């Protein structure tokens, strides 16, 4: 049996990264415990506030955010912490070598209906050691990430982790309260017959995306010559996890529903960590045409269209978008 701690000792050269991932995993175990208590822990429902994105905060969003903030701002390796739920980054220990970003509870509208949710995290280097970290220090392209992952609170609780050299998965052993290695060197097939997209946005998409989904829906009778299946968890963590387990393609594409939003998902703590995991498993992640990890962020809460998963499918979507330009 290899625990997460063993795995980090064997695969990571950085005590700082191990320290931060150790804290994230301990908080994830606390969040898991609260989720399993459900209505009994009085953590469901609205907290009565809106986050920086103007979304209603669920009680557990707020609790998960506070738990992660408390742990990471006290972590000596962390110079700063940024969260989906906070307007600005929070400076931690100026001597720290790392910056941590997270979405404490992705897919939180799933909480009250007993469906999967997750915690997503990304770890960046801190290049201004000795000085108080500010938002500007976080604005590094996804290629700079030193580690990234998520914890999916599903039928079991699973962590997917990359240290930039492949993807490993750990399952939470609720007897010993430890994450235990269940799979390494995860690899996504280049082709797939499964896609994930919120098709209710169809009329707001670009023609290239409409054409792509039209072709999938046409199945054997259309240009792709094979039938496709569709799945939508409504929590990106769940959809990405399915792709790491059995392949597929996921998209939250550009849409014109809200002219102020280039896409729905957040670059720095949703798209970037997921893109690193997907690439490390042999898949691809783009905004339809450009590699997500190459995008230079201009703000912490920036949104981006996302297309990720099976390499050939992501390439085909890119081809359709480029042909339409
Ligand atoms: O906020 C992000 C998110 O909850 C993702 O986890 C998920 O993929 C998406 O939004 C769901 O969006 P929609 O409610 O439009 O289906």
Task: Offer a few descriptive terms.
Fructose-1,6-Bisphosphatase, Chain A, domain 1; 5-stranded mixed β-sheet; 2 domains; 8 helices; alpha+beta; 8-stranded mixed β-sheet; D-Maltodextrin-Binding Protein, domain 2; 325 residues; single chain; binds 6-O-phosphono-beta-D-fructofuranose
**CATH architecture descriptor name of the largest domain:** 2-Layer Sandwich
CATH superfamily of the largest domain: Fructose-1,6-Bisphosphatase, subunit A, domain 1
Order of helices and strands: HHEEHEEEEHEEEEEHEHEEHEEEH
CATH overall fold name of the largest domain: Fructose-1,6-Bisphosphatase, Chain A, domain 1
Please, how many helices? 8
> How confident overall, as mean pLDDT?
95
Secondary-structure-derived class: alpha+beta
Rg estimate, integer Å: 19 Å
Euclidean distance between termini CA atoms: 52 Å
The unreliable regions are: none
The percent range for helix content is: 25-40%
Query: Could you say how many structural domains there are in total?
Result: 2
- In total, how many beta strands? 17
Strand content: 15-25%
| Distinct ligands, ions and cofactors found in the model | 6-O-phosphono-beta-D-fructofuranose
What best-fitting shape do the alpha-carbon axes yield? globular
Largest beta sheet: strand ordering: 4-3-5-6-7-8-9-10
Biggest sheet overview: 8 strands, mixed
What is the CATH class of the largest domain?
A: Alpha Beta
Catalytic activity: beta-D-fructose 1,6-bisphosphate + H2O = beta-D-fructose 6-phosphate + phosphate
Binding site for Mg(2+) 1: 84, 103, 105
GO molecular function: fructose 1,6-bisphosphate 1-phosphatase activity; magnesium ion binding
Binding site for substrate: 106-109, 198, 264
